[in-house]
Amino acid sequence: MDNRERFLDICQREIKREGIDKLLEFLTSPSSDFFTAPASTRYHCAHEGGLLEHSLNVYDNLRDYLSRQRAKDGFHLDYSEETIALVSLFHDLCKVNCYKIGSRNVKDERGVWHAVPTYEFDDRLPYGHGEKSVYILSGYMRLTREEAFAIRYHVGFASSVDNRTVSSAMEMFPLALALYIADLEATYFLETRGS
Q1: In sequence order, which residues have a C-beta less than 8 Å from that of residue 75 and are 6 or more positions away?
Q2: Per residue in 149-158, is it b (16+ CB within 10 Å) or e — as a string?
């Protein structure tokens, strides 16, 4: 099963919420590049299909983190498979249709400049990062407050908001911290720079 098939299988198996069919219809349409977009311009998963790969990595990490006995018994983290799938698979929905193919100049080992293909970020709906993902997802389905906060704050302290706000959100909604950890693990442990 390839990444696209796996993603669609998880969504259809785990997410029963009204609106998932319309969201998947959009994501699989020619109006969306979700399945071919990179996850970044030059860092983690900066290749075709990188956004899909990253989303699945975050899903696997979040499921693993939340399945640990310590998370369940010690931290009292208990979320449905639907919630886990929603927040992890769609946390970066904000990146759909934002990357364009471009080029940049680099020197080869002899010092000669060459144009190499790269991705450029071109956001036509500059509504932030996590908040934009919540905004788009909320257009298709109703989210719980904790799901919305988890997606909104999944970048943690890299957010442009006051650190006290991030800290408060994670204290009030522990799923936000769990998603942040899952995202960091995917980005820095599984998806090497320039991959």
Answers
A1: 174
A2: bbbbbbbbee
**95: helix, coil or strand?**
helix
* Residue linked to tokens 């909320």: 138
> pTM for this one?
0.92
* Residue ranges of E strands in 32-153: 99-107, 113-121
pLDDT in tens, the chain (195 residues): 999 999 999 999 999 999 999 999 999 999 999 999 999 998 899 999 999 999 999 999 999 999 999 999 989 999 999 999 999 999 999 999 999 998 889 999 999 999 988 899 999 999 989 999 999 999 999 999 999 999 999 987 776 667 788 889 999 999 999 999 999 999 999 997 544
Amino acid at position 191, single letter: E
Q: What are phi and psi of 156, to 5 degrees?
A: 55, -130
Tokens of 22: 């319309």
